[in-house]
Protein backbone atom coordinates (compact mmCIF):
# COMPACT_ATOMS: atom_id res chain seq x y z
CA UNK A 1 0.00 0.00 0.00
CA UNK A 2 1.37 3.45 -0.92
CA UNK A 3 1.88 6.09 1.77
CA UNK A 4 -0.97 8.07 0.23
CA UNK A 5 -3.35 5.11 0.57
CA UNK A 6 -2.10 4.42 4.09
CA UNK A 7 -2.87 8.02 5.07
CA UNK A 8 -6.43 7.57 3.76
CA UNK A 9 -6.94 4.24 5.57
CA UNK A 10 -5.48 5.56 8.84
CA UNK A 11 -7.59 8.73 8.64
CA UNK A 12 -10.82 6.77 8.12
CA UNK A 13 -9.98 4.56 11.11
CA UNK A 14 -9.11 7.48 13.40
CA UNK A 15 -12.10 9.59 12.27
CA UNK A 16 -14.47 6.69 12.94
CA UNK A 17 -12.89 5.97 16.30
CA UNK A 18 -12.54 9.47 17.76
CA UNK A 19 -14.79 11.60 15.55
CA UNK A 20 -13.51 13.64 12.64
CA UNK A 21 -13.43 16.81 14.70
CA UNK A 22 -10.99 15.47 17.30
CA UNK A 23 -8.42 14.18 14.81
CA UNK A 24 -5.76 16.51 13.31
CA UNK A 25 -3.26 15.86 10.52
CA UNK A 26 -0.60 15.68 13.27
CA UNK A 27 -2.49 12.82 14.95
CA UNK A 28 -2.68 10.99 11.64
CA UNK A 29 1.03 11.42 10.89
CA UNK A 30 2.03 10.48 14.43
CA UNK A 31 -0.19 7.37 14.37
CA UNK A 32 1.54 6.27 11.17
CA UNK A 33 5.01 7.12 12.45
CA UNK A 34 5.64 9.56 9.61
CA UNK A 35 6.52 13.27 9.78
CA UNK A 36 3.80 15.92 9.25
CA UNK A 37 5.93 17.07 6.29
CA UNK A 38 5.59 13.67 4.67
CA UNK A 39 1.80 13.83 5.12
CA UNK A 40 1.69 17.34 3.63
CA UNK A 41 3.63 16.07 0.63
CA UNK A 42 0.56 13.93 -0.20
CA UNK A 43 -2.31 16.09 1.08
CA UNK A 44 -2.68 19.85 1.44
CA UNK A 45 -4.68 19.64 4.67
CA UNK A 46 -7.40 17.64 6.49
CA UNK A 47 -10.08 18.87 4.06
CA UNK A 48 -7.99 17.47 1.21
CA UNK A 49 -7.91 14.07 2.96
CA UNK A 50 -11.68 14.19 3.54
CA UNK A 51 -12.29 15.00 -0.15
CA UNK A 52 -10.28 11.92 -1.11
CA UNK A 53 -12.22 9.80 1.40
CA UNK A 54 -15.51 11.10 0.01
CA UNK A 55 -14.36 10.25 -3.54
CA UNK A 56 -13.56 6.73 -2.35
CA UNK A 57 -16.94 6.40 -0.63
CA UNK A 58 -18.78 7.72 -3.72
CA UNK A 59 -16.91 5.32 -5.98
CA UNK A 60 -17.75 2.35 -3.76
CA UNK A 61 -21.38 3.40 -3.51
CA UNK A 62 -21.60 3.93 -7.26
CA UNK A 63 -20.25 0.50 -8.13
CA UNK A 64 -22.95 -1.09 -5.91
CA UNK A 65 -25.68 0.31 -8.12
CA UNK A 66 -25.34 -1.98 -11.09
CA UNK A 67 -28.64 -2.24 -12.95
CA UNK A 68 -30.72 -5.34 -12.25
CA UNK A 69 -30.75 -7.78 -15.12
CA UNK A 70 -33.45 -10.28 -14.32
CA UNK A 71 -36.59 -8.90 -12.73
CA UNK A 72 -37.40 -12.13 -10.91
CA UNK A 73 -34.13 -11.87 -9.05
CA UNK A 74 -34.96 -8.37 -7.83
CA UNK A 75 -35.13 -9.36 -4.16
CA UNK A 76 -31.83 -11.22 -4.27
CA UNK A 77 -30.23 -8.18 -5.83
CA UNK A 78 -31.85 -6.01 -3.18
CA UNK A 79 -30.22 -7.82 -0.28
CA UNK A 80 -26.91 -7.66 -2.09
CA UNK A 81 -27.35 -3.88 -2.30
CA UNK A 82 -28.42 -3.59 1.31
CA UNK A 83 -25.49 -5.61 2.63
CA UNK A 84 -23.02 -3.53 0.62
CA UNK A 85 -24.72 -0.21 1.35
CA UNK A 86 -24.93 -0.58 5.11
CA UNK A 87 -21.43 -2.02 5.24
CA UNK A 88 -20.27 1.12 3.43
CA UNK A 89 -22.17 3.41 5.80
CA UNK A 90 -20.55 1.58 8.68
CA UNK A 91 -17.07 1.83 7.15
CA UNK A 92 -17.37 5.60 6.65
CA UNK A 93 -19.65 6.36 9.56
CA UNK A 94 -17.68 9.41 10.80
CA UNK A 95 -18.96 11.25 7.76
CA UNK A 96 -22.64 11.20 8.75
CA UNK A 97 -21.79 11.85 12.41
CA UNK A 98 -20.70 15.36 11.52
CA UNK A 99 -22.22 15.80 8.09
CA UNK A 100 -23.25 19.46 8.35
CA UNK A 101 -20.00 20.45 9.97
CA UNK A 102 -17.81 18.73 7.40
CA UNK A 103 -19.79 20.10 4.45
CA UNK A 104 -19.93 23.66 5.78
CA UNK A 105 -16.12 23.84 5.85
CA UNK A 106 -15.57 22.95 2.19
CA UNK A 107 -17.67 24.36 -0.65
CA UNK A 108 -16.08 22.06 -3.25
CA UNK A 109 -16.92 18.98 -1.20
CA UNK A 110 -20.43 20.26 -0.57
CA UNK A 111 -21.03 20.75 -4.28
CA UNK A 112 -19.75 17.24 -5.03
CA UNK A 113 -21.89 15.84 -2.22
CA UNK A 114 -25.06 17.49 -3.52
CA UNK A 115 -24.48 16.26 -7.09
CA UNK A 116 -23.76 12.80 -5.79
CA UNK A 117 -26.94 12.79 -3.67
CA UNK A 118 -29.00 13.76 -6.71
CA UNK A 119 -27.58 10.88 -8.73
CA UNK A 120 -28.07 8.54 -5.78
CA UNK A 121 -31.71 9.53 -5.38
CA UNK A 122 -32.34 8.63 -9.04
CA UNK A 123 -30.56 5.31 -8.60
CA UNK A 124 -32.55 4.42 -5.49
CA UNK A 125 -35.71 5.36 -7.33
CA UNK A 126 -34.71 3.09 -10.22
CA UNK A 127 -34.30 0.21 -7.80
CA UNK A 128 -37.78 0.93 -6.41
CA UNK A 129 -39.18 0.95 -9.95
CA UNK A 130 -37.24 -2.25 -10.74
CA UNK A 131 -38.85 -3.94 -7.75
CA UNK A 132 -42.25 -2.78 -8.94
CA UNK A 133 -41.65 -4.08 -12.46
CA UNK A 134 -40.58 -7.40 -10.95
CA UNK A 135 -43.91 -7.57 -9.08
CA UNK A 136 -42.14 -7.34 -5.72
CA UNK A 137 -43.80 -4.11 -4.59
CA UNK A 138 -46.92 -2.15 -5.50
CA UNK A 139 -46.38 1.59 -5.41
CA UNK A 140 -47.88 4.67 -7.07
CA UNK A 141 -45.58 6.72 -9.27
CA UNK A 142 -45.69 9.76 -7.02
CA UNK A 143 -44.69 7.61 -4.04
CA UNK A 144 -41.52 6.26 -5.65
CA UNK A 145 -39.58 9.47 -5.06
CA UNK A 146 -40.93 9.77 -1.51
CA UNK A 147 -39.87 6.21 -0.73
CA UNK A 148 -36.45 6.86 -2.29
CA UNK A 149 -35.97 9.84 0.06
CA UNK A 150 -37.04 7.87 3.15
CA UNK A 151 -34.74 5.00 2.16
CA UNK A 152 -31.84 7.44 1.75
CA UNK A 153 -32.48 9.07 5.10
CA UNK A 154 -32.80 5.71 6.87
CA UNK A 155 -29.60 4.31 5.37
CA UNK A 156 -27.57 7.54 5.72
CA UNK A 157 -28.51 8.36 9.27
CA UNK A 158 -28.69 4.82 10.62
CA UNK A 159 -25.21 4.93 12.19
CA UNK A 160 -25.59 8.31 13.97
CA UNK A 161 -29.07 7.21 15.11
CA UNK A 162 -27.63 4.09 16.76
CA UNK A 163 -24.63 5.87 18.23
CA UNK A 164 -26.87 8.50 19.84
CA UNK A 165 -28.95 5.76 21.47
CA UNK A 166 -25.95 4.14 23.14
CA UNK A 167 -24.19 5.53 26.22
CA UNK A 168 -20.81 4.34 24.99
CA UNK A 169 -21.49 5.98 21.61
CA UNK A 170 -19.88 2.92 20.07
CA UNK A 171 -20.94 1.24 16.89
CA UNK A 172 -20.61 -2.47 16.13
CA UNK A 173 -20.50 -3.89 12.62
CA UNK A 174 -23.51 -6.05 13.55
CA UNK A 175 -25.56 -2.87 13.99
CA UNK A 176 -25.96 -2.71 10.25
CA UNK A 177 -28.29 -5.74 10.35
CA UNK A 178 -30.77 -3.84 12.46
CA UNK A 179 -30.68 -1.12 9.82
CA UNK A 180 -31.31 -3.61 7.03
CA UNK A 181 -34.36 -4.84 9.01
CA UNK A 182 -35.80 -1.32 8.93
CA UNK A 183 -35.41 -1.15 5.16
CA UNK A 184 -36.99 -4.59 4.75
CA UNK A 185 -39.97 -3.44 6.86
CA UNK A 186 -40.34 -0.49 4.48
CA UNK A 187 -40.33 -2.73 1.41
CA UNK A 188 -42.75 -5.12 3.11
CA UNK A 189 -45.17 -2.21 3.55
CA UNK A 190 -45.29 -1.95 -0.25
CA UNK A 191 -44.96 -5.74 -0.66
CA UNK A 192 -47.11 -7.99 -2.83
CA UNK A 193 -48.62 -11.42 -2.14
CA UNK A 194 -45.72 -12.86 -4.08
CA UNK A 195 -42.97 -10.99 -2.22
CA UNK A 196 -44.13 -10.79 1.40
CA UNK A 197 -43.27 -14.43 2.25
CA UNK A 198 -39.83 -13.89 0.74
CA UNK A 199 -39.32 -10.60 2.60
CA UNK A 200 -40.30 -12.41 5.82
CA UNK A 201 -37.65 -15.05 5.15
CA UNK A 202 -35.05 -12.33 4.65
CA UNK A 203 -36.18 -10.71 7.87
CA UNK A 204 -35.60 -13.97 9.75
CA UNK A 205 -32.10 -14.17 8.34
CA UNK A 206 -31.22 -10.60 9.34
CA UNK A 207 -32.94 -10.88 12.74
CA UNK A 208 -30.56 -13.70 13.60
CA UNK A 209 -27.59 -11.62 12.49
CA UNK A 210 -28.88 -8.56 14.35
CA UNK A 211 -29.21 -10.62 17.55
CA UNK A 212 -25.41 -10.52 17.76
CA UNK A 213 -25.53 -6.72 18.18
CA UNK A 214 -26.58 -4.76 21.25
CA UNK A 215 -30.35 -4.16 21.20
CA UNK A 216 -31.58 -0.80 19.90
CA UNK B 1 -39.12 37.62 29.58
CA UNK B 2 -36.48 36.97 32.26
CA UNK B 3 -32.76 37.26 31.42
CA UNK B 4 -32.49 33.50 31.84
CA UNK B 5 -35.23 32.88 29.25
CA UNK B 6 -33.71 35.50 26.95
CA UNK B 7 -30.36 33.68 27.10
CA UNK B 8 -32.12 30.44 26.09
CA UNK B 9 -34.01 32.09 23.22
CA UNK B 10 -30.93 33.91 21.94
CA UNK B 11 -28.82 30.74 22.16
CA UNK B 12 -31.34 28.71 20.14
CA UNK B 13 -31.44 31.43 17.49
CA UNK B 14 -27.64 31.74 17.24
CA UNK B 15 -27.07 27.96 17.32
CA UNK B 16 -29.58 27.46 14.49
CA UNK B 17 -28.12 30.31 12.47
CA UNK B 18 -24.37 29.64 12.83
CA UNK B 19 -24.22 26.07 14.12
CA UNK B 20 -23.79 25.21 17.78
CA UNK B 21 -20.07 24.67 17.39
CA UNK B 22 -19.34 28.19 16.16
CA UNK B 23 -21.22 29.98 18.96
CA UNK B 24 -19.57 30.66 22.34
CA UNK B 25 -21.08 32.01 25.56
CA UNK B 26 -19.27 35.28 24.75
CA UNK B 27 -21.12 35.54 21.44
CA UNK B 28 -24.42 34.94 23.22
CA UNK B 29 -23.73 37.57 25.89
CA UNK B 30 -22.45 40.08 23.34
CA UNK B 31 -25.49 39.54 21.09
CA UNK B 32 -27.76 40.29 24.08
CA UNK B 33 -25.69 43.29 25.18
CA UNK B 34 -25.03 41.74 28.62
CA UNK B 35 -21.72 40.95 30.30
CA UNK B 36 -20.33 37.39 30.24
CA UNK B 37 -20.51 37.58 34.08
CA UNK B 38 -24.26 38.17 33.90
CA UNK B 39 -24.62 35.10 31.61
CA UNK B 40 -22.51 32.99 33.98
CA UNK B 41 -24.76 34.06 36.86
CA UNK B 42 -27.56 32.12 35.11
CA UNK B 43 -25.65 29.27 33.40
CA UNK B 44 -22.42 27.51 34.32
CA UNK B 45 -21.29 27.08 30.69
CA UNK B 46 -22.52 26.36 27.17
CA UNK B 47 -23.29 22.72 28.07
CA UNK B 48 -25.56 24.02 30.86
CA UNK B 49 -27.44 26.16 28.31
CA UNK B 50 -27.77 23.18 25.94
CA UNK B 51 -29.16 21.01 28.76
CA UNK B 52 -31.82 23.62 29.42
CA UNK B 53 -32.64 23.82 25.71
CA UNK B 54 -32.92 20.04 25.53
CA UNK B 55 -35.27 20.07 28.56
CA UNK B 56 -37.41 22.65 26.76
CA UNK B 57 -37.43 20.61 23.56
CA UNK B 58 -38.32 17.39 25.46
CA UNK B 59 -41.13 19.14 27.30
CA UNK B 60 -42.59 20.51 24.06
CA UNK B 61 -42.29 17.14 22.35
CA UNK B 62 -43.85 15.36 25.30
CA UNK B 63 -46.89 17.62 25.45
CA UNK B 64 -47.57 16.86 21.76
CA UNK B 65 -48.08 13.20 22.52
CA UNK B 66 -51.48 13.38 24.16
CA UNK B 67 -53.32 10.07 23.77
CA UNK B 68 -55.94 9.94 21.02
CA UNK B 69 -59.48 9.91 22.30
CA UNK B 70 -61.65 9.01 19.37
CA UNK B 71 -60.24 6.44 16.99
CA UNK B 72 -62.12 7.79 13.99
CA UNK B 73 -60.28 11.06 14.40
CA UNK B 74 -56.94 9.30 14.28
CA UNK B 75 -55.86 10.93 11.01
CA UNK B 76 -56.83 14.42 12.15
CA UNK B 77 -54.79 13.86 15.30
CA UNK B 78 -51.94 12.56 13.20
CA UNK B 79 -51.59 15.74 11.16
CA UNK B 80 -51.76 17.76 14.36
CA UNK B 81 -48.83 15.72 15.65
CA UNK B 82 -46.90 16.03 12.42
CA UNK B 83 -47.32 19.79 12.21
CA UNK B 84 -46.17 20.22 15.79
CA UNK B 85 -43.36 17.67 15.55
CA UNK B 86 -41.74 19.03 12.43
CA UNK B 87 -42.19 22.58 13.63
CA UNK B 88 -40.30 21.57 16.77
CA UNK B 89 -37.54 19.88 14.79
CA UNK B 90 -37.24 23.05 12.74
CA UNK B 91 -37.16 25.28 15.84
CA UNK B 92 -34.34 23.25 17.44
CA UNK B 93 -32.62 22.08 14.27
CA UNK B 94 -29.08 22.87 15.46
CA UNK B 95 -29.40 19.91 17.83
CA UNK B 96 -29.63 17.24 15.11
CA UNK B 97 -27.03 19.01 12.98
CA UNK B 98 -24.36 18.11 15.52
CA UNK B 99 -26.09 15.41 17.53
CA UNK B 100 -23.12 13.09 18.10
CA UNK B 101 -20.82 15.97 18.93
CA UNK B 102 -23.17 17.58 21.42
CA UNK B 103 -23.98 14.28 23.16
CA UNK B 104 -20.34 13.13 23.35
CA UNK B 105 -19.43 16.23 25.36
CA UNK B 106 -21.97 15.75 28.14
CA UNK B 107 -22.71 12.38 29.75
CA UNK B 108 -25.66 13.72 31.75
CA UNK B 109 -27.31 15.08 28.60
CA UNK B 110 -26.58 11.86 26.74
CA UNK B 111 -28.24 9.79 29.47
CA UNK B 112 -31.31 12.07 29.42
CA UNK B 113 -31.41 11.92 25.64
CA UNK B 114 -31.33 8.11 25.58
CA UNK B 115 -34.11 7.81 28.18
CA UNK B 116 -36.16 10.35 26.30
CA UNK B 117 -35.68 8.50 23.00
CA UNK B 118 -36.85 5.26 24.60
CA UNK B 119 -40.03 6.93 25.86
CA UNK B 120 -40.52 8.59 22.47
CA UNK B 121 -40.19 5.30 20.62
CA UNK B 122 -42.97 3.82 22.78
CA UNK B 123 -45.16 6.85 22.17
CA UNK B 124 -44.64 6.73 18.41
CA UNK B 125 -45.46 3.02 18.51
CA UNK B 126 -48.65 3.76 20.43
CA UNK B 127 -49.70 6.21 17.74
CA UNK B 128 -49.03 3.53 15.11
CA UNK B 129 -51.15 1.06 17.11
CA UNK B 130 -53.84 3.72 17.57
CA UNK B 131 -53.99 4.23 13.81
CA UNK B 132 -54.30 0.47 13.36
CA UNK B 133 -57.10 0.24 15.91
CA UNK B 134 -58.88 3.08 14.10
CA UNK B 135 -58.67 1.09 10.86
CA UNK B 136 -56.38 3.68 9.28
CA UNK B 137 -53.43 1.35 8.71
CA UNK B 138 -52.89 -2.42 8.49
CA UNK B 139 -49.64 -3.51 10.07
CA UNK B 140 -48.24 -6.66 11.67
CA UNK B 141 -47.25 -6.43 15.33
CA UNK B 142 -43.57 -7.01 14.65
CA UNK B 143 -43.60 -4.17 12.09
CA UNK B 144 -44.96 -1.55 14.50
CA UNK B 145 -41.61 -1.09 16.23
CA UNK B 146 -39.75 -1.05 12.89
CA UNK B 147 -42.09 1.63 11.56
CA UNK B 148 -41.70 3.61 14.79
CA UNK B 149 -37.91 3.61 14.32
CA UNK B 150 -38.13 4.67 10.67
CA UNK B 151 -40.57 7.45 11.58
CA UNK B 152 -38.20 8.67 14.31
CA UNK B 153 -35.21 8.66 11.98
CA UNK B 154 -37.14 10.47 9.23
CA UNK B 155 -38.46 13.17 11.56
CA UNK B 156 -35.22 13.61 13.53
CA UNK B 157 -32.83 13.79 10.59
CA UNK B 158 -35.10 15.63 8.19
CA UNK B 159 -33.52 19.04 8.82
CA UNK B 160 -29.84 17.92 8.49
CA UNK B 161 -30.85 15.93 5.39
CA UNK B 162 -32.28 19.04 3.74
CA UNK B 163 -29.46 21.32 4.82
CA UNK B 164 -26.88 18.92 3.37
CA UNK B 165 -28.70 18.95 0.03
CA UNK B 166 -28.58 22.73 -0.28
CA UNK B 167 -25.48 24.72 -1.23
CA UNK B 168 -26.46 27.58 1.07
CA UNK B 169 -27.00 25.10 3.91
CA UNK B 170 -30.01 27.18 4.83
CA UNK B 171 -33.29 25.85 6.11
CA UNK B 172 -36.71 27.40 5.51
CA UNK B 173 -39.69 26.84 7.74
CA UNK B 174 -41.59 25.59 4.68
CA UNK B 175 -39.10 22.72 4.41
CA UNK B 176 -41.02 20.93 7.13
CA UNK B 177 -43.93 20.34 4.75
CA UNK B 178 -41.72 18.23 2.50
CA UNK B 179 -40.84 16.20 5.58
CA UNK B 180 -44.49 15.72 6.48
CA UNK B 181 -45.07 14.43 2.92
CA UNK B 182 -42.47 11.71 3.51
CA UNK B 183 -44.23 10.59 6.69
CA UNK B 184 -47.61 10.58 4.92
CA UNK B 185 -46.13 8.40 2.15
CA UNK B 186 -45.00 5.97 4.87
CA UNK B 187 -48.46 5.82 6.41
CA UNK B 188 -50.02 5.45 2.98
CA UNK B 189 -47.84 2.36 2.43
CA UNK B 190 -49.65 0.78 5.38
CA UNK B 191 -52.94 2.52 4.52
CA UNK B 192 -56.36 0.91 4.21
CA UNK B 193 -59.13 1.34 1.65
CA UNK B 194 -60.76 3.66 4.13
CA UNK B 195 -57.72 5.83 4.83
CA UNK B 196 -55.90 6.08 1.50
CA UNK B 197 -58.27 8.65 -0.04
CA UNK B 198 -57.96 10.73 3.13
CA UNK B 199 -54.17 10.43 3.16
CA UNK B 200 -54.15 11.55 -0.49
CA UNK B 201 -56.19 14.63 0.45
CA UNK B 202 -53.68 15.45 3.19
CA UNK B 203 -50.87 14.98 0.71
CA UNK B 204 -52.47 17.54 -1.62
CA UNK B 205 -52.69 20.03 1.23
CA UNK B 206 -49.04 19.60 2.21
CA UNK B 207 -47.84 19.51 -1.41
CA UNK B 208 -49.27 23.01 -1.85
CA UNK B 209 -47.54 24.19 1.31
CA UNK B 210 -44.27 22.49 0.31
CA UNK B 211 -44.37 24.25 -3.07
CA UNK B 212 -43.45 27.44 -1.20
CA UNK B 213 -40.10 25.89 -0.22
CA UNK B 214 -37.06 25.30 -2.42
CA UNK B 215 -37.31 21.90 -4.13
CA UNK B 216 -35.43 18.99 -2.53
From TrEMBL, chains A, B:
<dbReference type="Pfam" id="PF13972">
    <property type="entry name" value="TetR"/>
</dbReference>
<dbReference type="Pfam" id="PF00440">
    <property type="entry name" value="TetR_N"/>
</dbReference>
<feature type="domain" description="HTH tetR-type">
    <location>
        <begin position="1"/>
        <end position="61"/>
    </location>
</feature>
<dbReference type="GO" id="GO:0003677">
    <property type="term" value="F:DNA binding"/>
</dbReference>
<dbReference type="InterPro" id="IPR050624">
    <property type="entry name" value="HTH-type_Tx_Regulator"/>
</dbReference>
<protein>
    <submittedName>
        <fullName>TetR/AcrR family transcriptional regulator</fullName>
    </submittedName>
</protein>
<dbReference type="InterPro" id="IPR009057">
    <property type="entry name" value="Homeodomain-like_sf"/>
</dbReference>
<keyword id="KW-0238">DNA-binding</keyword>
<dbReference type="InterPro" id="IPR025722">
    <property type="entry name" value="TetR"/>
</dbReference>
<dbReference type="InterPro" id="IPR001647">
    <property type="entry name" value="HTH_TetR"/>
</dbReference>
<feature type="DNA-binding region" description="H-T-H motif">
    <location>
        <begin position="24"/>
        <end position="43"/>
    </location>
</feature>
Amino acid sequence: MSTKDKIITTSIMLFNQHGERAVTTNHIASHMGISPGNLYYHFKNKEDIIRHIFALYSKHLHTQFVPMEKQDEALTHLTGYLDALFELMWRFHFFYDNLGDILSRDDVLKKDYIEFQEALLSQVREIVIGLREGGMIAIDDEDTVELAHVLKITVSFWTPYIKARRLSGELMQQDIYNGILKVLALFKAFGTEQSIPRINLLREKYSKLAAQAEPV
